[in-house]
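Exercise (ungraded).
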Amino acid sequence: MQKAFLVDGSICLGCNTCAMACKNQYHQDTGILWRKVREVGAEDYLIDNNNILPTLVSYQKAPKVTMPIERFYFSLACNHCENPACVAICPVGAHTKDPETGICKHDQTICIGCGGCVKACPFGASKFNAKMGQAEKCSMCWERQADGKTTACVQACPVGAIAIIDLHDPKYKELGTSAPVGIDYAINAETKPSTRFIHPHMPKEIYRQPKG
Amino acid sequence: MSYSKEKVDTLLHNGISRRNFLKGLAASGVLSSFPGGLLEANEDLNTKIPYLGEKSYETFRNACPRNCYDTCSIKTFVKDGVMQFIEGAQESTYTRGGCCVKGNSYVKRVYSARRLKYPMLQVGGKGSGQWKRISWDDAMEIIAKKLLEIKKDDGTMLGAALTKYSGNFGITHYGIEGMFNSIGYTTRLAGTPCWPAGIDAQNLDMGNMWCNDPEEMKDSKFIILWGVNPASNSVHSMKYIYEAKKKGAKVVVIDPVFTEMASKSSQYIQIKTGTDGLLALGMQKIIIDAKLHDQKWLDANSKGFKELKEYLDKDIKLDDVSKVTGIPLEMIKELALSFAKAKPATIWMGYGMQRHTNGGSMIRAIDALVAVTGNVGKYAGGARYGHLSTWGFNYAALSMPKPEGSVGYTGPEGAKGEFAHGGGGEKAAYTDRFLNINKTARELLNSKGPKVRLLWVACKNPFSQDFDRNQLIRAFKQLDMVVVADQFFNETAKWADIVLPVATQFEENDVNVSYWHYWLSLNEQAIKPIFEVKSDVQIAALLSKHMNKLEKGSCTFPQSVDTKEMTIKEFNPGIYAQFGIKSWEELKHGPVKAKAVIPYADGKFQTPSGKYEFYSEKALELFGSALPKYLEVRKPYDKFRMTSPHSRWSLHSQFQNLEWMEDVHPEPSVYINPDDAKMKMVNEGDTVAVFNKQGLLRLKAKITDNVQPGTVLMYEQWYNNNIYNVNELVDDTSSDMGAFKTGAPGVALHDTFVNFRKI
């Protein structure tokens, strides 16, 4: 099994409810968001000040799209990679990949705050909490899932734009793509990110007032 | 998830204790400038909180009491007396398990270091920034003495004024009005800055404001979202719109702005601002000419269709409609005909559209379009605006008798606001005095016989939300005393003499309903009030205690109250029958929904004729036009139109100030069309000054064709760390309607004009 987020950009409102629901559940420090709603066409990881530039995987620019600002989005957290860089680099085993669910978990009681995962993750999923001197990231609410609930983000999304799927389940095979449009992203990263995307589109008919 | 056990233990056992939060606090004495800044709390609560399993928490039922369509039903998870997290109630099909971005910030709101914690006295005078912490007893004694002094000097309490609006729509919060009822005849800032023109319009047409259940929209075949942006401001309605769309319904957005909703529609039609009424009239003409109107329904249920048709035939020229609205005639025809052919079809009208000098007339015109096509009184149809049909509570907290011998106002009595209910049956010799809430500054400055000397501000942030700010400062400064009851140290608090810290809904009991959906939620006290905060009715009780101590019988409000008992008193058999419950206690198991009723399906309208009134004598009498005639919008008085819609990050002046919200939306921007930006040589990210006769703002520009040429857009929000306030540019010009049902006309907020330049 490989649990994964399916992110539907065609219905995502960009309302940030998912990001805030994550804060509501885990009370991330000011300035830290485990889940971030990223705007299509405006994305630039270089200005994500909670991410130290990646070293293991080089960026590949996403296809350029021209969409109106502040209207189309992808909600992103940890991609729970099949081949996670954080797990590979962590010297103390604070990052683990759950063999049953495929969830990449981070255990802060073990974390020594070396920052390796923050640098290694091509997606900036691991955040460094300077106040605590430790890393932190989305662990797909595995405790909530173990308790029979879904993740905080999935439960809170008002339109169902995020879902949890099993990538190894054949029925999800054709669902979504691993390449989001218009956001600067490490497509085809060796870590094999599990998140899948449904692309947004403009309304079929649009009329705007003529100039002047 | 792992966590530092030690830290969490500290949190759970001491997390909200005074000790932890008081670190760094100079507990008494004069604090300079900004109390919130000095009361820097230990941010233990910001550490990672582990999820411990559902059984580890105590859960409580809560509701979001904000001025919002969605009025979410909330489930709150508490451990050892500390609120851990919230979820939307699963029982409500509307909330469906999740609150919005704002609701999900509630834990931070409750425990924010920026919260008001103690009663404070501005010892250096209003605006001086010289604050001193005082006790509740001292605060209430000062206020009680001032009130009694006013009564002694004037022989009446009319010198005491209350301004309260939508900060908390919980039913027991009408106890604030109850507090003012209980001290005598007083002055009230009446009316509503929100939606009054539309309320009047719907009442003139249908004798009520009563929308269909939003959940029905999933079965609508054609939806026009007219000047409404649920993708931003009613996110829980979106699932029904998406479902309808998925089933093949056409979702059309008519809006001057390419909104979040427009980006998710089937068709977006950009219209010139303030011409929506004319478009609706043009569409009716096309529909009637094509004989697609519902003659049978109109014959049975309407009054004045003949007059309407005559007006359309004679005065509405389709070429003019196209020219004025800026929309090609073919597109209007196609829209009109496809809307008329789809059954059921519905139109949802936003509140922004009626914040124009012709706002009420536009809502009337769109109502008429829905009626002409026979979509009024139909499942999944309707001219949707809002409703108050589930608000039939006792208003026990509001209904306080006047003290014996009270003397009041003898002028004509008007309506008191859209939510005003109860308050005794017999016609009294005196009434309260009502001033226009939308002209607060000049009303306070001009009040005579007697002059207003004390102003109590509750559930309202006038300096953020009201207009004519320079006058407002003058108005506040000349008052003897301003009391502000709030949760945060906002701009209004800066111009107060006394600030009182108010409880959040998690620290009190209440009951909540929506003006949009049909759910009823209990709000239980989930945690003990932190610091010295009190709920509004407890403040009223304390005031009563002090007033009666100084002068027995001077205040009839109970001298001690329990918010739970007050909540129980609000229920009655009517509410129980409407919601199909036997007791309020059933709500502890989750919210319940009112029994389904299709508004006006029985063909009964509470208009004078008992029918839908295209031709309304009442409208003729009050507003000079019986028919929903086209009225031109306010003429520009500066180069660019400015529109100031609601942001998704805030509910008026609430939420944007929270630390968590700053993480997802840090600063305001002005949105400028590329053509206009080019002309003014403004580039993306430039700081620009936006100015007009009222004031000037400096902020960063974003260049986008989401706004049409000639229009700039800024959201109305209150930031904690930014002086930005869009209402500094807005004057207090009235909209056409509102006085009929809410006591005062609305404000033509979106008829503001500005200029801008690069700095």
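Further reading is listed at the end of the chapter. For now, observe: The radius of gyration of chain B is 26 Å. Confidence is low (pLDDT under 50) at residues 1-46, 422-426 of chain B.
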